[in-house]
Write a structure and sequence with these properties.
Structural class: alpha/beta
Distance between the termini: 25 Å
Helix content: 40-55%
Length: about 350
Protein backbone atom coordinates (compact mmCIF):
# COMPACT_ATOMS: atom_id res chain seq x y z
CA UNK A 1 0.00 0.00 0.00
CA UNK A 2 1.23 3.48 -0.88
CA UNK A 3 2.22 5.33 2.31
CA UNK A 4 2.53 9.13 2.51
CA UNK A 5 3.74 11.11 5.50
CA UNK A 6 2.44 14.65 6.00
CA UNK A 7 5.09 16.87 7.58
CA UNK A 8 5.48 20.54 8.36
CA UNK A 9 5.97 23.02 11.16
CA UNK A 10 3.41 23.18 13.98
CA UNK A 11 0.15 24.99 13.22
CA UNK A 12 0.36 24.85 9.43
CA UNK A 13 -2.87 22.85 9.12
CA UNK A 14 -1.57 19.27 8.99
CA UNK A 15 -4.14 17.77 11.30
CA UNK A 16 -6.97 19.71 9.66
CA UNK A 17 -5.88 18.49 6.23
CA UNK A 18 -5.47 14.95 7.54
CA UNK A 19 -9.01 15.04 8.97
CA UNK A 20 -10.33 16.13 5.59
CA UNK A 21 -8.35 13.52 3.65
CA UNK A 22 -9.27 10.61 5.88
CA UNK A 23 -12.58 11.87 7.30
CA UNK A 24 -11.19 11.23 10.78
CA UNK A 25 -11.83 13.46 13.76
CA UNK A 26 -8.40 13.61 15.37
CA UNK A 27 -7.27 16.37 17.69
CA UNK A 28 -6.69 19.79 16.17
CA UNK A 29 -5.43 22.53 18.44
CA UNK A 30 -3.86 25.94 18.21
CA UNK A 31 -0.61 25.04 19.89
CA UNK A 32 2.53 23.06 18.94
CA UNK A 33 2.66 19.28 19.39
CA UNK A 34 -1.12 18.74 19.60
CA UNK A 35 -0.44 15.54 17.67
CA UNK A 36 1.67 13.34 19.93
CA UNK A 37 1.59 10.11 17.92
CA UNK A 38 1.41 9.79 14.16
CA UNK A 39 -2.22 9.39 13.14
CA UNK A 40 -2.82 6.98 10.32
CA UNK A 41 -5.71 6.90 7.88
CA UNK A 42 -6.35 4.68 4.86
CA UNK A 43 -8.35 6.24 2.05
CA UNK A 44 -9.59 4.86 -1.28
CA UNK A 45 -8.09 6.13 -4.51
CA UNK A 46 -10.94 7.83 -6.41
CA UNK A 47 -11.72 5.88 -9.58
CA UNK A 48 -15.07 6.36 -11.31
CA UNK A 49 -14.43 3.34 -13.55
CA UNK A 50 -15.03 0.93 -10.68
CA UNK A 51 -18.71 1.82 -10.34
CA UNK A 52 -19.21 1.46 -14.09
CA UNK A 53 -17.63 -1.99 -14.16
CA UNK A 54 -19.45 -3.11 -11.02
CA UNK A 55 -22.76 -2.32 -12.72
CA UNK A 56 -21.68 -4.09 -15.92
CA UNK A 57 -20.53 -7.26 -14.16
CA UNK A 58 -23.18 -7.10 -11.40
CA UNK A 59 -20.27 -7.40 -8.97
CA UNK A 60 -20.78 -8.21 -5.30
CA UNK A 61 -18.28 -5.61 -4.13
CA UNK A 62 -15.90 -2.86 -5.19
CA UNK A 63 -12.33 -2.78 -3.89
CA UNK A 64 -10.48 0.43 -4.79
CA UNK A 65 -6.74 0.94 -4.55
CA UNK A 66 -5.82 2.61 -1.26
CA UNK A 67 -3.38 5.17 0.09
CA UNK A 68 -2.20 5.38 3.69
CA UNK A 69 -1.74 8.91 5.04
CA UNK A 70 0.29 9.49 8.19
CA UNK A 71 -0.06 12.78 10.02
CA UNK A 72 3.32 13.36 11.66
CA UNK A 73 3.52 15.87 14.51
CA UNK A 74 5.01 19.29 13.81
CA UNK A 75 8.76 19.60 13.37
CA UNK A 76 10.74 22.61 14.56
CA UNK A 77 14.26 23.93 14.04
CA UNK A 78 16.59 21.57 15.90
CA UNK A 79 14.31 18.55 15.43
CA UNK A 80 17.25 16.47 14.14
CA UNK A 81 18.92 17.07 17.53
CA UNK A 82 15.77 16.26 19.46
CA UNK A 83 14.17 19.71 19.74
CA UNK A 84 10.44 19.57 20.27
CA UNK A 85 9.66 15.90 19.80
CA UNK A 86 11.84 15.75 16.71
CA UNK A 87 13.75 12.48 16.70
CA UNK A 88 10.62 10.46 17.40
CA UNK A 89 8.76 11.95 14.45
CA UNK A 90 11.71 11.84 12.05
CA UNK A 91 11.78 8.09 12.64
CA UNK A 92 8.13 7.85 11.52
CA UNK A 93 8.93 9.53 8.21
CA UNK A 94 11.46 6.81 7.34
CA UNK A 95 8.65 4.29 6.96
CA UNK A 96 6.80 6.22 4.21
CA UNK A 97 7.09 5.99 0.41
CA UNK A 98 6.83 9.74 -0.06
CA UNK A 99 6.63 12.92 1.96
CA UNK A 100 4.09 15.70 1.67
CA UNK A 101 5.47 18.99 2.94
CA UNK A 102 2.52 21.09 4.07
CA UNK A 103 3.55 24.74 4.01
CA UNK A 104 1.56 27.56 5.57
CA UNK A 105 0.93 30.36 3.08
CA UNK A 106 -2.01 32.11 4.73
CA UNK A 107 -2.21 34.90 7.28
CA UNK A 108 -4.29 34.60 10.43
CA UNK A 109 -4.20 36.51 13.69
CA UNK A 110 -6.05 33.63 15.34
CA UNK A 111 -3.50 30.92 14.56
CA UNK A 112 -0.03 31.43 15.96
CA UNK A 113 3.05 30.66 13.89
CA UNK A 114 5.88 28.92 15.70
CA UNK A 115 8.32 31.53 14.32
CA UNK A 116 5.86 34.42 14.83
CA UNK A 117 5.85 35.21 11.10
CA UNK A 118 4.42 33.60 7.97
CA UNK A 119 7.26 32.91 5.54
CA UNK A 120 6.82 29.87 3.27
CA UNK A 121 10.44 30.14 2.09
CA UNK A 122 11.82 30.05 5.64
CA UNK A 123 9.49 27.23 6.68
CA UNK A 124 10.52 25.09 3.71
CA UNK A 125 14.20 25.68 4.48
CA UNK A 126 13.67 24.79 8.14
CA UNK A 127 12.02 21.45 7.38
CA UNK A 128 14.48 20.53 4.61
CA UNK A 129 17.44 21.45 6.80
CA UNK A 130 16.22 19.20 9.61
CA UNK A 131 15.74 16.28 7.23
CA UNK A 132 19.22 16.77 5.79
CA UNK A 133 20.85 17.06 9.22
CA UNK A 134 19.14 13.85 10.30
CA UNK A 135 20.45 12.12 7.15
CA UNK A 136 24.00 13.34 7.76
CA UNK A 137 23.84 11.84 11.24
CA UNK A 138 22.52 8.56 9.81
CA UNK A 139 25.35 8.29 7.29
CA UNK A 140 27.95 9.25 9.89
CA UNK A 141 26.93 6.11 11.76
CA UNK A 142 27.00 3.93 8.63
CA UNK A 143 30.28 5.02 7.02
CA UNK A 144 32.76 3.58 9.57
CA UNK A 145 31.36 0.07 9.20
CA UNK A 146 31.32 0.31 5.41
CA UNK A 147 34.89 1.64 5.44
CA UNK A 148 36.05 -1.50 7.24
CA UNK A 149 34.15 -3.74 4.82
CA UNK A 150 35.62 -1.89 1.82
CA UNK A 151 39.16 -2.96 2.75
CA UNK A 152 38.34 -6.57 1.93
CA UNK A 153 35.47 -6.27 -0.53
CA UNK A 154 35.59 -4.50 -3.90
CA UNK A 155 31.80 -4.25 -4.05
CA UNK A 156 31.74 -2.56 -0.66
CA UNK A 157 34.56 -0.25 -1.82
CA UNK A 158 32.49 0.91 -4.80
CA UNK A 159 29.47 1.40 -2.56
CA UNK A 160 31.56 3.33 -0.05
CA UNK A 161 32.59 5.79 -2.76
CA UNK A 162 28.97 6.56 -3.61
CA UNK A 163 27.98 6.75 0.06
CA UNK A 164 30.75 9.27 0.60
CA UNK A 165 29.56 11.31 -2.40
CA UNK A 166 26.07 11.29 -0.92
CA UNK A 167 27.40 12.34 2.48
CA UNK A 168 29.38 15.22 0.94
CA UNK A 169 26.36 16.33 -1.10
CA UNK A 170 24.15 16.36 1.98
CA UNK A 171 26.61 18.64 3.74
CA UNK A 172 26.23 21.16 0.93
CA UNK A 173 22.46 20.72 0.93
CA UNK A 174 22.50 19.88 -2.79
CA UNK A 175 21.81 16.21 -3.53
CA UNK A 176 21.60 15.32 -7.20
CA UNK A 177 18.74 13.32 -8.66
CA UNK A 178 21.18 10.48 -9.38
CA UNK A 179 22.30 10.27 -5.76
CA UNK A 180 18.71 10.44 -4.52
CA UNK A 181 17.81 7.58 -6.86
CA UNK A 182 20.81 5.61 -5.56
CA UNK A 183 19.71 6.16 -1.96
CA UNK A 184 16.18 4.94 -2.71
CA UNK A 185 17.46 1.95 -4.69
CA UNK A 186 19.72 0.98 -1.79
CA UNK A 187 16.80 1.51 0.57
CA UNK A 188 18.89 3.76 2.77
CA UNK A 189 16.97 5.08 5.79
CA UNK A 190 17.28 8.65 4.58
CA UNK A 191 14.62 11.36 4.66
CA UNK A 192 15.72 14.13 2.33
CA UNK A 193 16.05 11.79 -0.65
CA UNK A 194 12.46 10.57 -0.47
CA UNK A 195 10.11 11.73 -3.24
CA UNK A 196 8.47 14.94 -2.05
CA UNK A 197 5.29 16.84 -2.86
CA UNK A 198 4.77 20.36 -1.56
CA UNK A 199 1.26 21.37 -0.58
CA UNK A 200 0.72 25.05 0.15
CA UNK A 201 -2.11 25.73 2.58
CA UNK A 202 -3.42 29.01 1.21
CA UNK A 203 -6.33 31.38 1.77
CA UNK A 204 -9.44 31.17 -0.39
CA UNK A 205 -8.34 34.33 -2.24
CA UNK A 206 -4.97 32.81 -3.17
CA UNK A 207 -6.65 29.75 -4.69
CA UNK A 208 -7.81 31.94 -7.57
CA UNK A 209 -4.60 33.99 -7.78
CA UNK A 210 -2.36 32.37 -10.41
CA UNK A 211 0.42 34.90 -9.91
CA UNK A 212 0.72 34.15 -6.18
CA UNK A 213 0.63 30.43 -6.81
CA UNK A 214 3.34 30.71 -9.46
CA UNK A 215 5.56 32.58 -6.99
CA UNK A 216 5.08 29.86 -4.39
CA UNK A 217 5.75 27.09 -6.93
CA UNK A 218 9.12 28.61 -7.76
CA UNK A 219 10.21 28.08 -4.16
CA UNK A 220 10.14 24.30 -4.60
CA UNK A 221 10.67 23.78 -8.36
CA UNK A 222 11.12 21.27 -9.92
CA UNK A 223 9.25 19.36 -7.19
CA UNK A 224 5.49 18.90 -7.56
CA UNK A 225 3.46 21.63 -5.85
CA UNK A 226 -0.25 21.78 -5.02
CA UNK A 227 -2.49 24.44 -3.49
CA UNK A 228 -5.27 23.75 -1.05
CA UNK A 229 -7.26 25.75 1.44
CA UNK A 230 -7.64 23.35 4.36
CA UNK A 231 -10.58 25.33 5.73
CA UNK A 232 -12.37 25.19 2.38
CA UNK A 233 -11.67 21.45 2.09
CA UNK A 234 -13.18 21.07 5.55
CA UNK A 235 -16.34 22.84 4.39
CA UNK A 236 -16.52 20.61 1.30
CA UNK A 237 -16.89 17.55 3.50
CA UNK A 238 -20.33 18.78 4.59
CA UNK A 239 -21.71 19.03 1.04
CA UNK A 240 -23.36 16.58 -1.35
CA UNK A 241 -21.50 15.50 -4.49
CA UNK A 242 -23.36 18.01 -6.70
CA UNK A 243 -22.94 20.84 -4.20
CA UNK A 244 -19.26 19.98 -3.88
CA UNK A 245 -18.64 20.34 -7.62
CA UNK A 246 -20.55 23.63 -7.74
CA UNK A 247 -18.58 24.92 -4.75
CA UNK A 248 -15.24 23.92 -6.30
CA UNK A 249 -16.19 25.52 -9.62
CA UNK A 250 -16.84 28.82 -7.86
CA UNK A 251 -13.12 28.87 -7.00
CA UNK A 252 -12.00 27.70 -10.41
CA UNK A 253 -11.08 24.24 -9.08
CA UNK A 254 -12.08 20.97 -10.71
CA UNK A 255 -10.90 18.47 -8.08
CA UNK A 256 -10.74 18.17 -4.32
CA UNK A 257 -7.43 18.35 -2.51
CA UNK A 258 -7.54 14.59 -1.94
CA UNK A 259 -7.85 13.81 -5.65
CA UNK A 260 -5.09 16.26 -6.52
CA UNK A 261 -2.78 14.84 -3.88
CA UNK A 262 -3.29 11.21 -4.86
CA UNK A 263 -2.70 12.00 -8.54
CA UNK A 264 0.44 13.93 -7.64
CA UNK A 265 1.67 11.02 -5.50
CA UNK A 266 1.11 8.51 -8.30
CA UNK A 267 2.93 10.79 -10.74
CA UNK A 268 5.83 11.47 -8.37
CA UNK A 269 6.30 7.79 -7.54
CA UNK A 270 5.72 6.55 -11.08
CA UNK A 271 2.62 4.51 -10.24
CA UNK A 272 -0.54 3.52 -12.06
CA UNK A 273 -3.54 1.24 -11.52
CA UNK A 274 -5.03 -1.55 -13.60
CA UNK A 275 -8.42 -3.20 -13.10
CA UNK A 276 -9.85 -6.68 -12.63
CA UNK A 277 -13.58 -7.31 -12.94
CA UNK A 278 -16.02 -10.12 -12.34
CA UNK A 279 -19.09 -11.19 -10.41
CA UNK A 280 -17.14 -11.56 -7.15
CA UNK A 281 -15.56 -8.10 -7.22
CA UNK A 282 -14.27 -5.19 -9.25
CA UNK A 283 -10.84 -4.09 -8.06
CA UNK A 284 -8.06 -1.62 -8.77
CA UNK A 285 -4.45 -2.71 -8.29
CA UNK A 286 -1.49 -0.33 -7.94
CA UNK A 287 1.69 -1.10 -9.90
CA UNK A 288 4.78 0.70 -11.13
CA UNK A 289 4.58 2.37 -14.54
CA UNK A 290 6.34 0.08 -17.00
CA UNK A 291 5.43 -3.08 -15.09
CA UNK A 292 5.03 -6.20 -17.23
CA UNK A 293 1.99 -8.46 -17.12
CA UNK A 294 3.70 -11.07 -14.86
CA UNK A 295 4.79 -8.31 -12.46
CA UNK A 296 1.24 -6.98 -12.35
CA UNK A 297 -0.06 -10.48 -11.67
CA UNK A 298 2.42 -10.73 -8.79
CA UNK A 299 0.70 -7.82 -7.05
CA UNK A 300 -2.37 -10.03 -6.70
CA UNK A 301 -0.35 -13.04 -5.53
CA UNK A 302 3.27 -14.09 -5.92
CA UNK A 303 2.09 -17.47 -7.27
CA UNK A 304 0.42 -15.65 -10.16
CA UNK A 305 3.75 -14.18 -11.24
CA UNK A 306 5.67 -17.45 -10.89
CA UNK A 307 3.03 -19.43 -12.77
CA UNK A 308 2.10 -16.74 -15.30
CA UNK A 309 0.89 -18.07 -18.66
CA UNK A 310 -0.89 -15.13 -20.28
CA UNK A 311 -3.06 -12.08 -19.64
CA UNK A 312 -6.43 -11.51 -21.28
CA UNK A 313 -6.70 -7.74 -21.64
CA UNK A 314 -9.51 -5.37 -22.65
CA UNK A 315 -9.13 -1.63 -22.91
CA UNK A 316 -11.58 -0.04 -20.45
CA UNK A 317 -13.05 2.36 -23.03
CA UNK A 318 -13.52 -0.45 -25.55
CA UNK A 319 -15.23 -2.55 -22.90
CA UNK A 320 -17.63 0.23 -21.93
CA UNK A 321 -18.38 1.01 -25.57
CA UNK A 322 -19.14 -2.65 -26.25
CA UNK A 323 -21.42 -2.88 -23.22
CA UNK A 324 -20.22 -6.27 -22.01
CA UNK A 325 -17.20 -8.53 -22.02
CA UNK A 326 -18.98 -10.92 -24.37
CA UNK A 327 -19.70 -8.13 -26.87
CA UNK A 328 -16.12 -6.87 -26.59
CA UNK A 329 -14.84 -10.35 -27.38
CA UNK A 330 -17.18 -10.64 -30.39
CA UNK A 331 -15.85 -7.30 -31.64
CA UNK A 332 -12.27 -8.53 -31.38
CA UNK A 333 -11.39 -6.11 -28.60
CA UNK A 334 -9.84 -8.68 -26.27
CA UNK A 335 -6.16 -9.46 -26.69
CA UNK A 336 -4.11 -12.27 -25.18
CA UNK A 337 -0.72 -10.97 -24.04
CA UNK A 338 2.44 -12.71 -22.94
CA UNK A 339 5.25 -12.05 -20.49
CA UNK A 340 6.68 -9.06 -22.35
CA UNK A 341 3.46 -7.02 -22.34
CA UNK A 342 3.80 -3.67 -20.57
CA UNK A 343 0.71 -2.82 -18.55
CA UNK A 344 -1.39 0.26 -19.31
CA UNK A 345 -3.62 2.16 -16.85
CA UNK A 346 -6.65 1.50 -19.06
CA UNK A 347 -6.26 -2.30 -18.86
CA UNK A 348 -9.00 -4.55 -17.52
CA UNK A 349 -7.25 -7.87 -17.00
CA UNK A 350 -7.83 -11.54 -16.36
CA UNK A 351 -4.64 -13.56 -15.71
CA UNK A 352 -4.06 -17.15 -16.68
CA UNK A 353 -1.51 -19.04 -14.60
CA UNK A 354 -0.37 -22.39 -13.27
CA UNK A 355 -0.21 -22.77 -9.49
Amino acid sequence: MLSIGIVGLPNVGKSTLFNVLTKNDILTANYPFATIDPNTGIVPVPDERLEVLAHMYDSNKIVPATVQFIDIAGLVAGASKGEGLGNKFLAHIRETDAIVHLVRAFESNNIVHVANKVSPKDDIETINTELILADIETLEKMLPKLTKEAKADKTAAAKLKTYQQLFDALQTGQVSAELSTFARHEKLPLLSTKPAIYVFNVSEDTLADDAKKATLSKLVAPAESLFVCAKLEEDLGKLSADEKQEFLASYGITETGLNQLIKAAYKTLGLQSYLTAGKKEVRAWTIKQGATAPQAAGVIHTDFERGFIAAQIINYDDLVAAGSELAAKAAGKIQTCGKDYVMQPSDVVEFRFNV
